[in-house]
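Hi R.,

Here's the chain you asked about this morning:
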Amino acid sequence: MIFGRSILSTFLMIETVKLSEGNLFGKIHRPVVLSDTVQRDHDVFVNKEIWNLAEDHIRAMMVNRDDPHGSNVPCSSPSAVWLQKQTSLVATDDLEKMLRWNLYIVPFAYKLYIANPVLYSQEYFGFDGEYTHEIREIYDEAQDFWSGSGVFDEVHLLAAHGSDLSDREKLIPTLELLFEGSYDKDFTVDDHADEIQELISRLPGGYEFPLLTFNAFATDEMGDDIDPSIIIGDGYFQFQKDSRNESEGPEYALTHEFAHHVMNAMGLSLEDYKKEELMADAFAAYFLANNSGGDMTGEEISNIHRVAYSVGDCGISDELHHGTPKERKCATVWGADFADSKEGRKLNARELYARFNTWFSDIDSLDNECLPQSSSSVTRNISAIISLMLLVPWLLAW
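And the predicted structure, written out as tokens:
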């Protein structure tokens, strides 16, 4: 993800905070649960632990949304601040229903499982398609750059749109797929669709409310019918726009997720979410800064560092922790700097992986300049010695 290879909810960027005792939702709403078929056959949604943890984070954010600077909300990452602002705009009852009904996965499920693949060529990115050109352009460049890694053109570029939920011909089959066992004569899928659309009509911006599609991830091949893909929700683009990272936010998202496909093609299974995400950050920045890749300017790369920082989280005790804001930024600093070095001009993916492993071994000792503390201490000592050497002739002359 920028959020993860195995569909970790973007909401996992929020720091874990303690929930109030008791059931937050009680029996207010009729429960709907992912069907047995989905859990058995659809890898994207099979890991209930991941989704449950994501939901815990959203619930915790809701409990604390009116106290953004409270002592039990220690994370100050840009994503946490933004999420708190978004949840504060939603009535408590409506936010409860959004969580209860897993609305933040429905647009993605529609695009992955229900949408006709014939229409993929017409895909657009952003609420009004404003990011389509740069997403497709950077995808083509990334594919050329990483061509030796085994990533080929069957990786589909997909977008999740909240507006798809306004079309009942899209919404109802998606609900039937996800929540098949939850419906009966007293609560039909049509009833559920009615309630969902009524709820969305009350959200700020309606179907364009960003929390409906605040995610981006890469998927592996799933069975005979689902090819590998990269799917980016409109909510991600809105987050970057609100964070004033709109200029390079789309490039970062696409290349980060493409890096996950590079890792998949190499057969890498790190079983370490933080390392995997930081590697995707580093690979993305390496490509974007490379003269043979994205060939970004220094200013553009600086923006990439800010984008990576913005998606960091503070949940360092979480198994699904993706890296702190500083670590996410430092991974892109390393990748871009290495691409600009003489030895790093154009390495293949496996060589880059080996170099990344060396850098990652110092991840817990990085200072604010993204240098290992031992290295930064040596650098400071050398700088002091040089300054003294320059000063001595002046003192002697005086």
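The beta strands are 156-160, 216-219, 229-233.

Let me know if you need anything else.
M.
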